[in-house]
Amino acid sequence: MNLAQLRHLIAVAEHQSFRKAADALCLTQPALSRSIQALEDELQVRLIDRIGRHNTLTAYGRQVVASAHRILAETAELKRGVTLLREGRIGNIAIGLGPTPASILMVPFLCEMATRHPSVQVRIARGAVDMLVQSLRSEVVEIIAVDRRALRAADDLRIEPLAALRGGFLCRSGHPLLRQPRIELAQLRQYPVAAMPLSDELARNLVAELGPEAHPERMVTINSEDVSGLLDVVEATDAVFFGIFASARDRIAAGRVQEIHVEPHVERMGHYALVSLARRSESPAMAFFREFVHERFCD
């Protein structure tokens, strides 16, 4: 058994045709047939049912193909890791960031890389959780930082929880609401509310805490994945921000925005995670990013 035979079997499984698989592999059809036959002879089982022009995997074939995908992926990772070590490089890195992690991590991380590792190529993808998970599985990115509540657990994902972060409502310094001794939802809704897309779990919590009018579909009037842009709007207008306070850390420290409590006040926490492929080896650059996140992702 060799890696070429495993690649050949995967190609037949994907194309369900020896002719199409042979064309994709740049092989003759007889050569491909001999390769599959040799693999079947070695394993002493039939891997493919040949029925006319259709070729389908047997139960043995499905199991071997699943293992073959893992073996080829691990082989590629082995070669990649050895190359990085041999060349003494930190390696390039491609990461994915959800809206809130991007607002906290993106600029500091890019500054860090530009200063300490100027030769490293850094690619950052931004977007919703499902899109970033798909990018991770297709190996467009190596690791993602996302809202854990919007993430579906799966065997192929390694999920590493990050520190919980405080969240709630923020407004600009001098906002009319700051003159109110008590702020209720009805008063808040006299002003635009700006927020990123919120998870179903958070929407349910808002309704339970503040009533049905707090559902994001009713309460949020400015919706964007650009958290920094939302905060710029909040500083410049009477709009109120709902999100994680760490996204506005510098603005809060400078006194440009302030936390407000909407009654009944509840301490809200955001829950995030680093996610990578469970069986993928970690490059030096990925380890550096992981360490950076744990240092910076905090209140």
Topology, pairings included?
Blueprint: H1 3-15, H2 18-25, H3 29-43, E1 48-51, E2 54-57, H4 59-87, E3 93-97, H5 99-116, E4 122-126, H6 129-137, E5 143-147, E6 157-161, E7 165-172, E8 183-184, H7 185-188, E9 193-195, H8 200-210, H9 216-219, E10 222-223, H10 227-236, E11 240-244, H11 249-253, E12 257-260, E13 262-263, E14 268-270, E15 272-277, H12 284-296
Parallel strand pairs: 3-4, 3-5, 8-13, 9-10, 9-11
Antiparallel strand pairs: 1-2, 5-15, 6-15, 7-11, 7-12, 7-14
Keywords:
Arc Repressor Mutant, subunit A, 6-stranded mixed sheet, 12 helices, alpha/beta, D-Maltodextrin-Binding Protein, domain 2, single chain, 3 domains, 299 residues
Question: Could you walk me through the main structural features you see in this protein, from its secondary elements to its overall organization?
Answer:
With 299 residues, the chain is α/β, with parallel strands linked by helices. The protein has 12 helices and 15 strands. The protein has helices at residues 3-15, 18-25, 29-43, 59-87, 99-116, 129-137, 185-188, 200-210, 216-219, 227-236, 249-253, 284-296; strands at 48-51, 54-57, 93-97, 122-126, 143-147, 157-161, 165-172, 183-184, 193-195, 222-223, 240-244, 257-260, 262-263, 268-270, 272-277. The strands form 4 sheets. Strands 7, 9, 10, 11, 12 and 14 form a 6-stranded mixed beta sheet that branches. Strands 4-3-5-15-6 form a 5-stranded mixed beta sheet, with helices on both faces. α5 links the parallel β3 (93-97) and β4 (122-126). α1 packs across α2 and α2 (18-25) crosses α3.
